[in-house]
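Purpose: get a first structural picture of the assembly so the mutagenesis plan has something to point at.
Setup: two entries, given in the order below. No constraints added.
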Amino acid sequence: MNKLAVGLSLAAALAVQSASAGLHYSSPITVSGTVAYGQVHAARTSGDNKQFIGCAAYGAVNTNSTYVACSASDAAGHTLYCSTYNPSYYVWQAAMSVTEASSIIINADSHGNCIYVYVQNASTNL
Amino acid sequence: MVRLWSVCALSAVIGIGAGWALRGSGSADTNESATPGTAQVAQLVLPQPQAAAQSGLNLAQLHAAIKEELAALRSQPANERQAAAAAKGNAPASPELIAQRREAVQDIQAMILTGEWGNTERAQFQQKFSLLDPEQARQVLQQVTMGLNNGTIHSQIDLPL
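Result (structure tokens, whole complex):
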């Protein structure tokens, strides 16, 4: 019975190992001045309960005003918020392409405007 | 079918003629080798630049003007183009809408002053944001963002906007 339990545990461990195999980089969230970067997955699975990074987009049928907003927080609790009023199509697309597999770089100016939003989606980010 | 062929033939004639006209004075040398058909087309199309010249414009000037317009459009930021387009297309706001907008701005300012920003504030902000004119919307968005960054607004949520 014990042998069976050990065998099952080993098999499960190997299965998990196999599922998470592959090239992988871990990049926790870093906030430095008006720049923030890091991986969504690394932030979500961090143990500090502070890290996050992400973007949102606003649109409504009764207005021509839209915006994209992004924010990030590192493990120490440093935060960066940026927003862009009526962003270009490209900024909008970048912000809305964020997934769990994303690595994001946000850069803001001194007024909190998002200067650029870089999104990279890759298996290595998971 | 006949109509389609007619359209195609007419398009071809116009295209050939325009190409011929764009070649300018240098194209005169090739008239000798052109077929009688193309020569007739050239005769039909060549008067066009003359008409343009009579109106005080030539093709080079037209090209330059078009290039200038396109360059100006490309250099203008997207949000300015949208604001300009909106300003052109929008009728003047009614007194009622102006009052609604004023009230919406005041409400957002009051929310900023509380210093706390959660799901409720985000929802209210977005509701009122839709009422604002482009300049008001740009300003309040920036105020909230700057407030979040300088710490006068404490966000209770990860994406407060």
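The mean pLDDT of chain A is 90.
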